[in-house]
Design a protein that fits this description.
Radius of gyration: 18 Å
Shape: globular
Strand content: 15-25%
Structural class: alpha+beta
Order of helices and strands: HHEEEEEEHEEHHHHHH
Strand order of the largest sheet: 1-8-3-6
Number of strands: 8
Number of helices: 9
Helix content: 40-55%
Length: 189
């Protein structure tokens, strides 16, 4: 079964005909490592469901330093939701960390798909709620845990990221310097 349909079926039931309708609205795309799917200033006109690979969502802060806000791996969705919804310029970048394969859907097709299969509204609401909840937990950890505790927590909960993602991106996501990351990994903190 298609990974997207499998993912949807975890939240709602789809008939065979509904699954075919869903898949007809998506396009498979491939991006090379380091390629941007979205660049700050562009309008986010697509949502991406990750079939293979790892993606990051980041900003360039006021000092020109990249600050990773989110990662995405297989069976996760990623987009700039505000830019996608309101068709405004994005303040974010989305970049392939590895060579990736995604299923994409543009804004017009997304709206048409929801008209065709209305129960997908529930699916997307549940996915976004889960994502928003994860963001809230991450913010809590940033405010309540030391840098070392954040690293060990991430390493215990998401070891696949520690193995797949460059260390400077992990450090950025956890809000500390790559040098501090080296000290933690060497056990010098």
């Amino acid at each position: 079964m298609n990974p997207l349909i499998q993912h949807i079926q975890k939240f709602i039931s789809l008939s065979e005909s509904e699954a075919k309708i869903v898949l007809s609205y998506f396009e498979q795309e491939n991006f090379k490592k380091k390629q941007l799917l979205l660049e700050e200033g562009q309008i986010s006109n697509k949502q991406y469901f990750i079939l293979k690979g790892c993606i990051r969502f980041y900003i360039n802060n006021s000092k020109g330093v990249e600050q990773t806000m989110q990662f995405g791996i297989e069976n996760w969705w990623i987009t700039d939701y505000l830019s996608f919804q309101y068709q405004t310029a994005s303040h974010f970048n989305i970049q392939a960390i590895e060579n990736i394969e995604v299923l994409s859907i543009d804004r017009k097709s997304f709206d048409e798909l929801l008209d065709q299969v209305p129960k997908l509204e529930r699916y997307f609401r549940l996915v976004i709620q889960k994502s928003f909840g994860a963001s809230q937990v991450r913010i809590r950890y940033l405010f309540t845990m030391s840098a070392e505790e954040r690293f060990h927590h991430m390493n215990n909960m998401f070891p696949e990221f520690i193995q797949r993602v460059p260390q400077y991106m992990i450090a950025s996501y956890l809000d500390f310097s790559p040098e501090f990351m080296s000290k933690i990994r060497a056990g010098k903190v």
